[in-house]
Every structure is written in C-alpha cells, then in structure tokens.
Amino acid sequence: MERVYIFDTTLRDGEQAPGFSMTTEEKLQMALQLARLGVDVIEAGFAAASKGDFEAVKLIAEEVKGPVICSLARALEKDIELAAQALEGAERKRIHTFIATSEIHMKYKLRLPPEEVLERAEKAVAFARRFTDDVEFSCEDATRSQREFLYRIIERAIKAGATVINIPDTVGYAVPEEFAQLIEDIRNNVPNIDKAIISVHCHDDLGMAVANSLMAIKHGARQVECTINGIGERAGNAALEEIVMALKVRKDFFGGLYTNINTKELYKTSRLLCRITGSFVPPNKAVVGDNAFAHESGIHQHGVLSNPLTYEIMSPEDVGFPSTRIVLGKHSGRHALKSKLKEMGYELSEEEIDKIFEKFKALADKKKEVYEEDLEAIIYEEVMKIEEEEPVKVLHYQVQTGDKLLPTATVVLSYMGEERTATSTGNGPVDAVIKAIQKALGIEPKLLDFSIKALTPNTDAQAESRLVIELDGIKSSGRGVDVDVIKASVQGFVDALNRAILRKNYILSRQRVREEGTV
Ligand SMILES: CC(=O)SCCNC(=O)CCNC(=O)[C@H](O)C(C)(C)COP(=O)(O)OP(=O)(O)OC[C@H]1O[C@@H](n2cnc3c(N)ncnc32)[C@H](O)[C@@H]1OP(=O)(O)O
Ligand SMILES: CC(C)C(=O)C(=O)O
Ligand SMILES: [Mg+2]
C-alpha cells in the first residue's frame, strides 16, 4: 500500500477565484476543518500577497496542528522571507516557491531568458531551505514547457534542496494520456528525481483536472494538489473530494494507493466552504452535490430501495452525506410512492395506493417535486374523504425584538376550538414565537430541519419557510410563505404541527379499526 499525499490549496489557489476571498477568521475556520478532514498539507495562502493574507497564514500556522502548513512565494527573496516569517509558529512548515517555465510565460510575463529562470529557481529553493527543510518547487505552466528545459530545472531545483517537485497544468491544457506520459518522462529523464516527491496541480479549463490528476497518480505522482468543491482560478482546480473518492471506490484500478482523508468529513467540509463563500455547488456536483445520492426515477428508486448498490457506487455515510434521498416526481413509480407513504405512517391497501398513484402522477406532471404535504392532501381527499379542520390555528401573535432586547413573543391560538395564550423568550424572534406556540400547546416537537429563503432577491421579497418536525415519533413537514419572515416561520411550523396531529389521529383511528375488527 502506498500513500498519496493530499495537498489542499483551497485557501490559496481556491481563494484566488473571483468572489472566493475569505477573511482571516474564515480561513482559520476552514483550516481547522481541513485538519479534521485529514489533509497532509494546507497551503494557507500567499504571505506576500497582502497584510491580511500574511496574518491568515501566521494564524493558521500557530493554531492548526496536524497538517504541514505551507505558504506560496514567488522565486524572490522578499516573498520567501515573508512566507518564512508567517510560518514561524507552525509545528511543521513548507515553503512553496515557483517560477514559470514555458516560453510564453518566460518571454511575455517574466521577460527573462531561460538561463536566468534556471538561476532564479535554484537560488529561490536554496534560499527557502535556510528556513525549512521542507521546500516545494513548482514549474508554472509545466504542460506547455519544453521537456528538456523542464528536466534541467527540476534537476537543479532538487540539487538546491527541493523535496517536492510540483508539475502544474496551470491553464488546464493537458489531456490525461499526455499528462501521464509527462510524469513518466520526468521520472525517466531527471537523474535525481528519486530524491523528491512528484506532485501534480491541475486546472479544470477543459474539465479534465481530476482525470489528469488521477492519471498522474497512476503513473507515479505521490502528492496531489486540489481544492474543496474544485474552487480555484478560472474553471477551478481538481476537486479534492472527487480524487479521494475515486482512489477509494476504484482501489481495484489504482492498485493499493490510499490517502489519509477521513472521507466522512467530506460533505461537512464542502458545506462549510459554501457557507463561508456564499457560493453553492451545483446539485449534480460529484460526491457532495444535493443530487449525488438522490433518485427521482422509478426504475432507479425501485433498485435503490431493494439494494442501494444497484445505483450507488459509494454510500452517503462514506462521505458524511445525510442519506440517500428518494424524490417523488413525474418519473417516480409505485415502489417509491409506497415506501414514502409507509415512512409517513400510512398503511394503505393496494386499491388505495392505486388511487393515490394516479392523482400523484397527475400532480407530478404539473410541479417539479411532490412533497409530503402534497401527498397528504391527496390522501385526505381520495382515501379519508374528509376535509379536516386544522387542529391548531394562530389567532394573533406579537413579538418584541431589538439589538438590546431579549426577543419575547406572545401567542394567542386555538387548539380544537379552545383558546390558549402563552409568552416566551428565545434566541431570536422566530425562536421566541415558536417556543410560545409550544408552550400554549404543552408540547415540544423536535425540530429536525428548518430553512428560510427569499423567493426573489429584493428586501421586500416573499420569504418561504420549510420545516421538518417530529412529534410523538411522527415526522411531518410544513411550509409557510409571507413577506414577513416571522409570519412565514409561524405558518410553516403550525402547518407541520397540524399535519403531525392529523396523521397521529389517522394512525390511532386505523389502529382502533384493526383492534375492533370493524370499518
Ligand atoms: C499560477 C498561480 O496561481 S501563481 C499565483 C497567483 N497568485 C497571485 O498572484 C495572488 C497574489 N498576488 C499578489 O498579491 C500580487 O500579484 C503580488 C503582491 C504578488 C505582486 O504584486 P505587484 O508587485 O504589484 O506585481 P504584479 O502582480 O502586478 O505583477 C507580478 C510581478 O511578479 C513577477 N513574477 C510573476 N511570477 C513570478 C515568479 N514566480 N517569481 C518571480 N517573479 C514573478 C512578474 O514578472 C511581475 O513582475 P514585475 O512587477 O517586475 O513586472
Ligand atoms: C503556483 C502554481 C502551483 C499554480 O497555482 C499553478 O501553476 O496553477
Ligand atoms: Mg493553480
């Protein structure tokens, strides 16, 4: 078994993408999570970039234990000195210095002849070695560089003391077979290559960053540079979660290679980054997207309900994803519907299910997803043939809140026609009003999920609340919409409560019928 080192550059290359800048505190929070995830190296930033980035690298170096902490630096003494200063407090530190090696970069960007680039690379590595014996050297734009020149600069960098040689596909130009050949060629043509670890750093401009990284690993690279959710310059870097899970799921193909990543932390890490940057991954994103373990079509749902392995090559638990999600929509079938109804507590005859299925399909043709509330409406109408009166009705509520006030709410509601009043405080206005409703009813349902979102991007937008609660073992969901977020939350909570109470009554009446043997 051979280890592949995971070098995370979310906080350096990832942060370079427009809209992904993080504050020092946010970078620290992310670095602590990366340490829990088990990455081997955290590239915490580019100390010479700004005072803020210097502070972030310094704070991470002092606070985060476990991984090697690294700072990027140009092949310049001033950059390397700043990197070394920022890293002083680290348990283990690495300086990562780089210079471009392609003709186009050397000619137009650096305006330096190749021999001068060779000299600078060598000097930079030797200078960095004064501060640490862990020095990484990158040949920027390696995939568009001349092979012979690459071999020479790598050899010189290793002689000068580089312990890791990174081969970046800076502009995402390579294709997997060609990139694998480049790694093979470096292994075969750089005489002292055995004294350094080969690393790769791929960009996704043509959507091949992960494929290129994996092929390089297959051909001898033992460090891979990547980012959470694949964030990074332009189209991004290779996604950490995809590389790690590919190595794990396809260990048959990758021949005994392993990483030290605790894959159960992957989803949490991805979501933390989304929350910090305010940028969410697309639903179809591999490994961590909302739909990565969701199934809407009937044939797939039937398969997954019988055995998840029919349509899932990894389990949601493996990556810390909440669970497989069976989504009811127009492509769903009877098996999924039956399973959902059972989960909701309804045990219905085949004839009843047929009726519900017909109505469900008709509804699904009109809307994207059919929720529990929609199914319940069909059940009440088609099976129970009742128009239930809502057991709980909020008649009036009042909330006091402010930056120097303890949020307090008073609620007047009716429960089965009986008027009740209660007052409660809470962490915020929504918490206070929900606690007051619970107090008035003398119940404490568990709040399993609560989200509130604006339906349009204006300050006067309608807010939509969605809640899932559990009352006496019965799970139910509710929804509320209003321009006032507190009112939308109250509506959603009461909606979920009413559904739970009605469902409980239904289950009890069915039980009674079964016990008495009458209809
Ligand atoms: C592929 C990559 O991801 S590389 C990393 C990219 N990341 C960043 O650039 C983020 C941080 N960067 C910054 O904050 C700024 O660019 C700084 C502070 C580093 C430099 O800012 P400035 O001094 O104003 O220079 P500016 O960014 O305009 O130009 C870059 C300079 O660095 C030089 N340079 C670029 N790469 C290197 C290198 N590896 N080694 C030495 N010099 C380099 C360029 O030739 C140019 O030099 P010049 O000013 O003599 O023309
Ligand atoms: C600094 C280097 C490693 C880089 O980010 C790139 O070449 O893409
Ligand atoms: Mg890069």
TrEMBL record:
Keywords: Acyltransferase, Amino-acid biosynthesis, Branched-chain amino acid biosynthesis, Cytoplasm, Leucine biosynthesis, Manganese, Metal-binding, Transferase. Mn(2+) binds at residues 13, 201, 203, 237. SMART domains: LeuA_dimer. It comes from Thermocrinis ruber. Homodimer. Signal peptide: none annotated. It catalyses: 3-methyl-2-oxobutanoate + acetyl-CoA + H2O = (2S)-2-isopropylmalate + CoA + H(+). InterPro entries: 2-IPM_HCS-like (IPR050073), 2-isopropylmalate_synth_dimer (IPR013709), AIPM/Hcit_synth_CS (IPR002034), Aldolase_TIM (IPR013785), LeuA/HCS_post-cat (IPR054691), LeuA_allosteric_dom_sf (IPR036230), LeuA_bact_synth (IPR005671), PYR_CT (IPR000891). PANTHER family: 2-ISOPROPYLMALATE SYNTHASE 1, CHLOROPLASTIC-RELATED, HOMOCITRATE SYNTHASE-RELATED. It is an enzyme of class 2 (transferase). The keyword Transcription regulation does not apply. This is 2-isopropylmalate synthase. GO terms for molecular function: 2-isopropylmalate synthase activity; acetyl-CoA C-acetyltransferase activity; manganese ion binding. Pathway: Amino-acid biosynthesis; L-leucine biosynthesis; L-leucine from 3-methyl-2-oxobutanoate: step 1/4. GO terms for biological process: L-leucine biosynthetic process. CDD domains: DRE_TIM_IPMS. Its EC number is 2.3.3.13. PROSITE patterns: AIPM_HOMOCIT_SYNTH_1, AIPM_HOMOCIT_SYNTH_2, PYR_CT. HAMAP family: LeuA_type1. Residues 393-519 are annotated as: Regulatory domain.
